[in-house]
C-alpha cells in the first residue's frame, strides 16, 4: 500500500494540512496516511525539531504532505526544511503559478546556493557560503528542460553579471537546453522579477538558483492572489515532499482564517507525482469550482473560514465522484 507521511508542523499548518489530507482521502481512500511530528513545537518540548526518528519515518514514506514550520531567530535552531531537503536530496523545488492568464512554473535548485548550510559566526561578521556546483546545476537544468519540453520554453534566471557562480549556472543550463532542444533565454534576476510581474504571458518555465527562486516565486504569488494560493513540490530521485509555499503564520494561527488552497493544491501535486493525473485534476477542478462560486477566504476578499472553505471543496469533490 502507498504510504503518505503527514507533517502538520506549526501554526496554520495544523489547520490547512488536515483539510488537504481529507481532500486527498476523498479521491484516494486506498492511500495509507501516518503522522510525523517535526517543527518548532517539537523543538520546544524536546530540543530537537527534526531528529533521526523523524527522518527515518519520512524516508519510509512514498510521499510526504508537509504543512509549515516556524523558524525562530535562535542560533541553536536548525531549519527543518533545509535539513529535510538535504538529507532526502530533494534537489528540485517546483512552484506552479497558475491563474487567469498566468501559467508559469518556477523550478528552483533546492539543496545548495545560499542555503548550502555552510555558515559560521566571527567576532564582527556572519558568513554564508554560496555553493553552485556543476552537478547541482546539471540536474536541476535537466529537470527544468524535461518540463519545458512538454510546455513551451525555458528562462534561466541569474545574476551572472555580478556573481561568478552564476556564470557556471548559466553555462550549464544553456548547454542542457541546447542538448534537449528546448528554446532558452537568460535573464538577470532583478529585471526578470519586474518583467514577470508586468508581462507574465512571456514566461513559461523559469529555472534559477536557490534563494533567487525562493524570492521570485513568492513575488509571483501576486499574480494569482497571494501566497495562500501557491503549492509546491520538493522532488528527489527517491523521495518527494509537497507543501504550501506560505509559512506557519503564527499571527493568524487558530483563528480559522488561513487560506487552505495552497495546501490542497499541494495535495493535487502529490497525487500527480503518484501517477494519478485524474485524481489530481479532480482536486484542482473542485478548487476552481469553489472559487468560481465566490467562496473565498479573507485574504482573497471573501468571508469563508478555513474549515468552511475546506468543506466546500470536499462537497465539490463528492459531486465529481457522483
Automatic annotation (TrEMBL):
Residues 3-313 form the Isopropylmalate dehydrogenase-like domain. Coiled coil: none annotated. GO terms for molecular function: oxidoreductase activity. InterPro entries: IsoCit/isopropylmalate_DH_CS, IsoPropMal-DH-like_dom. It holds the Pfam family Iso_dh. Keywords: Oxidoreductase. It comes from the Archaea. Belongs to the isocitrate and isopropylmalate dehydrogenases family. This is Isocitrate/isopropylmalate family dehydrogenase. The lineage of its organism: Archaea, Methanobacteriati, Methanobacteriota, Stenosarchaea group, Methanomicrobia.
Amino acid at each position: 500500500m502507498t504510504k503518505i507521511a503527514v507533517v502538520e508542523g506549526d501554526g496554520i499548518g495544523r489547520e490547512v494540512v488536515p483539510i488537504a489530507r481529507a481532500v486527498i482521502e476523498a479521491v484516494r481512500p486506498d492511500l495509507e496516511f501516518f503522522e510525523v511530528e517535526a517543527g518548532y513545537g517539537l523543538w520546544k518540548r524536546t530540543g530537537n525539531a527534526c531528529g533521526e526518528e523523524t527522518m527515518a519515518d519520512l524516508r519510509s514514506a512514498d510521499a510526504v504532505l508537509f504543512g509549515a514550520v516556524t523558524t525562530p531567530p535562535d542560533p541553536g535552531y536548525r531549519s527543518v526544511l533545509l535539513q529535510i531537503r538535504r538529507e532526502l536530496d530533494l534537489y528540485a523545488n517546483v512552484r506552479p503559478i497558475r491563474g487567469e492568464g498566468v501559467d508559469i512554473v518556477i523550478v528552483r535548485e533546492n539543496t545548495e546556493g545560499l542555503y548550502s548550510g555552510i555558515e559560521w559566526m566571527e567576532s564582527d561578521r556572519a558568513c554564508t557560503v554560496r555553493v553552485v556546483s556543476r552537478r547541482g546545476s546539471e540536474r536541476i537544468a535537466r529537470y527544468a528542460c524535461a518540463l519545458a519540453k512538454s510546455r513551451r520554453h525555458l528562462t534561466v534566471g541569474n545574476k551572472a553579471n555580478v556573481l561568478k557562480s552564476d556564470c557556471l549556472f548559466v553555462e550549464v543550463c544553456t548547454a542542457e537546453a541546447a542538448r534537449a532542444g528546448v528554446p532558452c533565454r537568460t535573464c538577470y534576476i532583478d529585471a526578470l522579477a519586474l518583467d514577470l510581474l508586468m508581462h507574465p504571458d512571456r514566461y513559461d518555465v523559469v529555472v534559477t538558483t536557490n534563494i533567487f527562486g525562493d524570492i521570485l516565486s513568492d513575488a509571483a504569488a501576486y499574480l494569482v492572489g497571494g501566497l495562500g494560493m501557491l503549492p509546491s513540490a520538493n522532488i528527489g530521485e527517491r523521495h518527494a515532499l509537497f507543501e504550501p509555499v506560505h509559512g506557519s503564520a503564527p499571527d493568524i494561527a487558530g483563528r480559522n482564517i488561513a487560506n487552505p488552497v495552497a495546501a490542497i493544491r499541494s495535495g493535487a501535486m502529490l497525487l500527480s507525482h503518484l501517477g494519478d493525473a485524474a485524481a489530481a485534476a479532480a482536486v484542482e477542478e473542485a478548487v476552481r469550482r469553489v472559487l468560481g462560486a465566490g467562496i473565498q477566504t479573507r485574504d482573497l476578499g471573501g468571508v469563508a473560514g478555513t474549515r468552511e472553505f475546506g468543506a466546500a471543496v470536499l462537497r465539490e469533490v463528492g459531486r465529481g465522484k457522483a
